[in-house]
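Re: beginner question about structure tokens

> Can someone show what the tokenized structure looks like for a real chain? I only ever see the sequence side.

Sure, here's an example I had lying around. Input first:
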Amino acid sequence: MKAILWGKYRQFIRKPGALIVTTIMCMAFAFLLGKSSFTKIEVPVYSVNGTEDIHSIVKDLNKSESYTFKVFSEEETKKKVEEGTSEAGIALAENNYTLYRIADSSNVIVINRFLEKYYQNKQQKAAMIQLAQNHQDAEKILADNEANPILPVSFDSDVSEKKSTYNQALQSLFGFTLFFSIYTIAYTVVEILRDKQNGIWDRFILSSTSKTQLYLGHLLFSFIVGYIQIMLIFAIFKYGVGIDFYGNYYWVFLLIIPYLFAIVALAILLTGLVNTASQFNSLIPLITVSFAMLGGAYWPLEIVTSKFLLLLSKIIPITYGMEMLNKVITQDASLSEILLPAAVLLLMGTLMLGVGIRLIEKRHV
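And the corresponding structure tokens:
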């Protein structure tokens, strides 16, 4: 088996183009579709009547994780909105604001709510300080309470927000990574078919290497290549792009194993169903794209209303791969909660592997 792995490695080093192309395409699609979650949206603002506290207000507003408020002149701010380069422009005053927009988009609505909440809190603090006997002591107490709240409810609200918030960045990253990994694994597994067509497989059989070692060597190599590709993509997005895995990044190393096993088995099954490599190359894009759409790689299954499509998704490996990643990474699920999807993937993989190897042995002699 070591000789098989070494030979596949040497062959891969000579022609690494497929892995490089699929990796680049995966990162490009994931980044472009999740771009809104990677970067903050710039919102131009200007001071009304020379508001002296404008920079302090902007500093507080820039604590937002989604928007960056940047000071411009009144003419520049309105011009950006008129030309469509910015969805909204804000005129900031001491105790109120004016919002300029062309349409009520989702970003405009969120910005308006954010500003409303900010000014409401600011007015409440000003009223509390005004009613206090000692204004300086009141300001100090309020500042201390913000820094060290008596009831740290923010932690619970963060957890609930994390569990209920749809993360476009992670959805794109997980979906396209699982999607493109099918291509990578499939085009390494199909080498078994090419070896049979070229007569190389017969030479392997005549050697001292058993069929078990032959299959295990090919499948293990495909698994390793797929594993390295996925880990490389996730590492680039975590350390290069700065995507947030909510502290559960290293779970990915474990979660991806049952999914890759199922995909390797799927590739073996497809190899057993066709007679030539050209037939395989025609079939794999159809299967892969269909699985991605039905399995929630392109969009979350929560938005699908068709019961028939949801039923079909139950036999798609990507469905369970996405479920495991989303549950553990974004919802902080326990190990027991992912045992079911992991077990389903292992069962699917075992069945497809057994049927696929039997078909290969029966058809391609």
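Each token stands for a local structural state, so reading them left to right follows the chain. Residues 153-165 have pLDDT under 50 and may be disordered.
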